[in-house]
Amino acid sequence: MADLEASPGNTTDVGDFVKDEEEELDLEEGYEDTIIGYPMYAGARVEPWHRYDTEDNQNVLYPIRLGEVLNERYLVEHKLGFGGGSTVWMAFDLQDKRDVALKVMALGKWGDNETRIQDEIIKTVQDTSRLFIYTATFFLPRDDKNYHRVLVFPMRGPSICTLSLKRTSMASRMSAARQLLETVASLHKSGIIHRDLDARNCMWGMAPIDGLSRSAKYELLGRPLKQTIPFVDLWKEGELVSPVKVPEDLRTDKFYLCDFGLAKKISDLPTQRGYPPMHYCSPDRLHKQEPSFACDMWSYMAIFSMLYLTFPPFPTFLEGGVQWKGLYTHPGGLDSWFDQSQSPDPDNDLAAKIAYFRPDTDLVERQHVQSIMSKVFVYHPEKRPTATELLRDPSFRAIMDRYGC
Ligand SMILES: Nc1ncnc2c1ncn2[C@@H]1O[C@H](COP(=O)(O)OP(=O)(O)OP(=O)(O)O)[C@@H](O)[C@H]1O
Hints:
It is a single chain. By secondary structure, the chain is of the alpha+beta class. The chain has a domain at 16-156 and 208-246: Phosphorylase Kinase, domain 1. It has helices at residues 21-28, 110-124, 162-166, 170-189, 214-221, 283-286, 293-309, 350-357, 363-376, 387-392, 394-402; strands at 16-17, 30-35, 38-44, 69-70, 74-83, 86-93, 98-105, 136-141, 147-154, 192-193, 202-206, 225-228, 239-241, 251-257, 264-265. α4 (170-189) runs antiparallel to α7, α8 packs across α9 and α9 (363-376) packs across α11. The chain starts with 15 loop residues before the first strand and ends with a helix. The structure holds adenosine-5'-triphosphate. Adenosine-5'-triphosphate binds next to β5, β6 and β7. ATP binds at residue 103.
């Protein structure tokens, strides 16, 4: 990794503009990663252009170009990702000579909540070493006198996805499961609910590449493919840029939790709207119940099942419930899980799924995993174990022991 050409020395090469319509579509269009017919993750490589349009948009994004220096300090070199409330850029900190992640918040309240909760975490959570905690913050002004908040983080990545999990050892995957549960337990101990535990917010660590030239970084992480933001009459130039692809050999085994945009103190009132993606969202949240620590536990188990089975979160429900009938939050959504007359499909139940996705395991291991999952995937939030209880659960411990974690 000892390429000493200083990163900012190269001022010309800041990625490739799309050459034709095919590349443009490749950049903008959604893709779907599927496994035996189950959608794993659907999404676009870049944020939709209309999120830069101020019309009817209270959460407008800040336009950025590769090669720009933000706050007279951060040279933007690549894209790391985007979410509902931000774009995230890889930048070279010209002062400290290291790579950082810049989370450039959209206008609106999300950025304020994330900073407020992060400050709360810094004050109250004992071990923050596996949480994405900002190291600095600054503001970027718009032409209309509004300001975008920017949070500076150490660079991490990549987040978990089916394909890379299949190539990852069980020891690393189960170590990630244990680390994440400990992280959730320490957040809960401080009275904080994350509310958005999903695979995109769980990331491996990444070996530093600060010493490399930009071209060497592009060689490792992929060259940015970019397009000037189309259709919007922008007050400042900006680009839609494809994100980095972190090679597996740069990944470390440390497992992090990010994105506190929806997080809240259990005592906070009222709760702002927002849900994790459907596969990770507990039935109580989908049925307008107030968020609780137990919602995080459901989402945690969905991530555990990703890590263990490399399969998306369990899409069906195990028991009936009464009080949520008719309260479904998503228009057109089904209350079919509630139908007590439905009988379970034995080929499709938990045990069958575990056996299908992990034919390499023995019966004892499968029974432990089934026991763990069925304790958490229950309708009634008050019946789910807490993070601390699950860490002590004999089946959870047996699985961790088996994989040396
Ligand atoms: N420190 C980091 N290092 C590397 N990549 C990061 C970092 N922080 C964020 N990312 C990437 O940017 C993406 C968006 O970040 P994040 O989830 O924090 O944004 P958000 O706008 O709060 O999203 P959401 O819609 O989930 O609330 C992440 O999924 C991840 O791919």
